[in-house]
Specification:
single chain, 251 residues, alpha/beta, eight-stranded mixed beta sheet, 20% strand, elongated
């Protein structure tokens, strides 16, 4: 009986020791996550809607957890005040013109505060300073917008399907053009006639050049074109000589 009692005492002692160790470890991990053992400084911001933000949620700066939400209080019917504890070693990076917005960890994760970076020439944020805020976009508003977009996409798909059905059945001008071989042949014949007309016009122009009454006019145009071409070549030659003179002077 005494041996059984001794084993029971040993087991009970081990159980209590393990329980105390786990409790201390949990306190240490939670305190480290919530910055209970690190020196902190306080910042404040106000929102119209915090979108489910809770006390104890993380605060991020440049993608790193730098603090926690210390308190959330309603100031009036349109303003909510959020008090933030920020690690003291991060204070040298947070400027007075930084802004605060409500975000989330993933699409359906916990809410958190995000401090955006400020300008390089702005002064550092001081203890208890209030930072400007950017109102969050509600998930319900995003879902409503997606529903409207999906509805519009469905309407467009139905209209495209109707257009393709009309084309395949030969309805409408474009459908008849695609399906009716007679219209296609007429279009081809029109193109052939247009080409022939263009060829005939070119032949008439050549004949007009040989005409005695118009021959002088075309000769004049040719001489003017030759003069313009020669003037351009002379100018190029002149520019080339001037460039050679400048290069010789530099040497």
């Amino acid at each position: 009986m005494e041996t059984h009692t001794q084993k029971f005492k040993v087991r009970l002692g081990l159980f209590v020791a393990v329980g105390i160790a786990l409790f201390v470890l949990a306190i240490f991990l939670i305190g480290r996550q919530k910055n209970l053992f690190d020196p902190v400084f306080k910042l404040v911001s106000t929102f119209n809607n915090v979108s489910g933000l809770q006390v104890g949620n993380n605060i991020r700066f440049s993608g790193i957890n730098v603090g926690t939400v210390e308190n959330i209080s309603i100031i009036n019917d349109s303003t909510v005040r959020v008090d933030m504890w920020i690690r003291k070693d991060v204070q040298k990076f947070i400027k007075s013109d930084c802004s605060v917005t409500v975000g989330s960890e993933g699409l359906i994760g916990d809410r958190l505060l995000i401090i955006t970076q400020g300008t390089s020439d702005a002064p550092l944020a001081e203890e208890g300073q209030q930072l400007s805020s950017t109102e969050p976009i509600e998930t319900d508003a995003i879902m409503a917008s997606l529903q409207v977009t999906a509805g519009n996409a469905e309407i467009i798909s139905l209209e495209l399907a109707e257009i393709m059905m009309n084309l395949n059945s030969g309805n409408g001008t474009l459908g008849r053009l695609i399906q009716d071989s007679t219209i296609a042949e007429n279009l081809n014949q029109t193109m052939v006639n247009l080409k022939q007309s263009t060829k005939g016009l070119n032949e008439n122009m050549e004949a007009a050049k040989d005409n005695i009454l118009l021959k002088g006019h075309f000769k004049k145009k040719e001489r003017e074109a030759e003069k313009a071409k020669k003037a351009l070549e002379d100018q190029k030659e002149k520019d080339k000589r001037e460039q050679e003179k400048k290069e010789s002077k530099k040497e």
